[in-house]
Each structure stands twice: as structure tokens, then as C-alpha cells.
Amino acid sequence: MGDDGKNTLSIRDNRTGRDYEIDIHDGDVIRAMDLRQIKVDDGDFGMMAYDPAFTNTASTRSTITYIDGENGILRYRGYPIEQLAERSSHLEVAYLLLKGELPGQAELDDFVHQITFHTYVHENITELVGAFRYDAHAMGMVTSMVAALSTFYPDAKELDDPKARWIQIIRLVAKLPTLAAYAYRHHRGLPLVYPENELSYTANFLSMLFKIGGREYKPNPVLERALDVLFILHADHEQNCSTTAMRLIGSSRADPYCSLAGAMSALYGPLHGGANEAVLRMLNRIGSVDNIPAFMEGVKKKEERLMGFGHRVYKAYDPRASIIKRTADEVFEVTGRNPLLDIALELEKIALSEDYFVERNLYPNVDFYSGIIYQAMGFPVEMFPVLFAIPRTVGWLAQWEEMLLDGEQRIARPRQVYVGQDARDFVPIADRD
Ligand code: SDX
Fold this sequence. Notes:
- The chain is mainly alpha-helical.
- Among the domains are: 79-273 and 398-405, Citrate Synthase, domain 1; 278-376, CATH 1.10.230.10.
- Helix content is 48%, strand content 5%.
- The protein has helices at 81-87, 90-99, 105-116, 123-130, 138-149, 162-188, 201-210, 221-233, 241-250, 256-268, 275-286, 292-300, 319-335, 340-351, 355-359, 366-376, 384-405, and strands spanning 8-13, 18-23, 65-68, 73-76, 79-80.
- It has a three-stranded antiparallel beta sheet. Strands 1-2 form a two-stranded antiparallel sheet.
- A hairpin with a 4-residue loop joins β1 and β2 (18-23).
- α6 runs parallel beside α7, α8 (221-233) packs across α17 (384-405) and α13 runs parallel beside α16 (366-376).
- The N and C termini lie far apart (63 Å).
- The relative contact order is 0.12.
- S-citryldethia Coenzyme A binds next to α16.
């Protein structure tokens, strides 16, 4: 609070000499609409803020996830990610993100039961997955199948009915692993494996992926737990690109399946969730520790991008990357060490010590080490973005429902600064240059 005790911003428009008092909210936020009163002439549209890529624009007020990028802090509903990764499970964290509180035992048992009994998909989906080429990218297949699910559930349009919203949320959280496994099995030319209700969420996913023949499938408990931890770490991350897509598409009141397919499409990009796949391709391209100096010179010349490093929000080590790095050691105990880890560790060592990278806060992010684990667990690189989308489905849906229930939200429709041609008359083609 200033000397005069007012929680406002005083703005002087030097074009007119007029003074304005703009209220400050939530500590250090002004409402963009409060700028519109600043005009030269009364008929003007009024002042706008220009913010390409929304680098300094809050699109919502949210209670779901908190990130402190300067200090590498991440909390889901107030709980530190380190504690959740250590002591919780993906479905318990899913309940927390969706409902706002950790469940009691009966609530958790009921939630797990609901998820377990919605893992099947309509048989028509199996025909859809068969229609893809064998080498179709898994993310393209799963995104298509998610959108296709909207055609089976017309009640998904009843957005104002909490029960209708909840069953769509259950269906999507339950069915994403099934769709992902179907895409993987199709890619490998293997028969589809149906969900088994006796298995846990993660064990059932591993079974649908890797079970061969009629033999009972028991996943290695270390790998099952490692994947569950990775799912916890990827579940939400406040207003990232794909969550913004989910909220924006959902703001037109599109159903949650089509909205989520849009979010998956945004995640697929190599600058976002597709980075885990791009990291593996980069490490394979580097090939050996000896080639790192030349590669890093290419990065400094901007001929290369160090995939898996850097973040719009984190200007410190991504807390998820630290946990993933520890999880990698546990996985390699079972699978054997992934030789690409040596290249990754050397890249990190250089990035954390050389000025070029330090000046740009290029720390490893969530995508840097995750792919090395996925590859060691037997996943092809095309599955990596899908392994990000499965847990992020929870975050996308929690954010989507928060948007629907937020009285301040309406259909999203940003403004623009028009810098194009002034009015001009049509010229018949015969008269054009
Ligand atoms: C995710 O937002 C989220 O929360 C996302 C996510 C989630 O959980 O939802 O955390 C998941 O998407 C993690 C990020 C995965 N992407 C990558 O690993 C791709 C590689 N990283 C980047 O391309 C980049 O760091 C971004 C996209 C992550 C962030 O980009 P910004 O904030 O737009 O930063 P920038 O591109 O403006 O970079 C600032 C400077 C530039 O250099 P100068 O022009 O100042 O000289 O840093 C450089 C960039 O060239 N830079 C990099 C770099 N990242 C930034 N240079 C080399 N390699 C990189 N990876």
C-alpha cells in the first residue's frame, strides 16, 4: 500500500493530460477492461494491452495448480508435487485435482471403481483404429479416437448437469489408456488386449500394451510404480498451451471429448508435450558424448534447439525433472541402463555451467528425462506424447470444469491490433498488374 494507502495504479495519459486511477487486485493484477476508459476522444475504442503469446496475461483465476517459476515450486491444490509423487497414486491425485480435496478411503475406492468399470470403449472404435496405416503416429490415432468418442455420448453436451459432466470425466480418464494401448498394438500389428478390471489403472495399461497371448500378465511392480509417478508429475501444470486450448475450445461449449482432442493437438507440438519425443530423437542424433561440443555450438548459433530444456515459467530447475531423474535410476535397475542417459547427463552438465545456457535459464524440464525412461520401458518414441496426454487428461478436465463454473468466463475471443491495408476498392482482374 502506497503512502496514500490506496491500492491503485495512477496513470497519466500525456496525450490528453487526463489522470486515471486503476484498481489493483490479487496483489499485483489490473483488469485489462479497466484500461478501456483511457481514450483521446470519447468515440475511441479505448486502451488495450498487446501481449502476443500471452506472456504476461492471466486468462483466469484458478485454485487448481500453483507454480512458482523462480523457485521451482509446483503444488496441486496446495500439496507439493514432491510429497504427492512420493506418497500418493495417480488416481488419488486425479481425485484431488478434480474434486479439490484428497479423498477419504471410501471416496477413493468408489472413484477407482468408477474408473475401472469405464475402461472399455465401443467396439466400433476397434474398427476405427484398424483403419489407420500401420505406421500412423500414435498421437494422431489417439487424438482422432478421442474426438470420435464424442459421437457415442450425446449426453456430453449437457454441460450444465454436474452428473453428465462427471460421467464424461470418468469416461475420458478411464478410456485414454485403452485408446493409447489400442494405438500401440495396431502400430505393432498385435491383437488388441482388452482391459482387465482386476488390475490397477497403471498395471491394466501395461497389460493392454505388453500382454502377449493368453498368459496372465503381471507388470514389474517397479515399472508399474514408476509409470504411476510419471503420471502424477504430468497431471496438471496450470495455464500451459494445451490447457489454454482446452479452456478456449470449451468456452464455446463444445463437448469435453472434442475440447480434449484440441488440447491433445496442442500438446503434440515439439515445443510442448511433443518435446519428450523430440528429446529422444535429438539424443539419438547426437549419438555419443564426443559429439556434444559440436551440437552445443549449433545450439548457440541457433541452428539447433536443446529439446527438453527451457520453460516459459520455470527459471529454475523444473521440480518434476528432478523427481523423474531419480525415478530413472529405479527403472534402470530393472530394465538396464539406457546408454542415452550418459549423453543426457553431459548435456545437462554443460547447460548448467556454460553462460549461454545459464543466462537463458535453460534448465531441464519435465520432458528431458521422461523419454529416456519410456524408451527403457519399451515404448517407441511415437508413444511418448501419448504418455503425456494420458495423465494430463485429468488436468485438462479439472481446468475445463473450473472454466465452465467460473461466472466471469464467457466464450474466449481476444482482440487484435490491425496493421493491415486501409479501405480500398476491388480491382477487376483485367486491370491488375
Ligand atoms: C512443456 O507451459 C508449460 O507448463 C508446459 C509444460 C507442461 O507441463 O504443460 O511444462 C510441458 O511443454 C515443457 C517444455 C517442453 N519443450 C521443450 O523442451 C522444447 C525446447 N524448449 C523451448 O523451445 C522453450 O524453452 C520453451 C518453448 C519451453 C519456452 O520458450 P519461451 O518461453 O518462448 O522462450 P524463448 O523461446 O523466448 O527463449 C528465450 C531465449 C531465446 O534465446 P534469445 O532469442 O534470447 O537469444 O532462450 C532460448 C531462445 O532461443 N531458448 C533456447 C531453448 N529454449 C529457449 N535455446 C536453445 N534451446 C532451448 N531449448
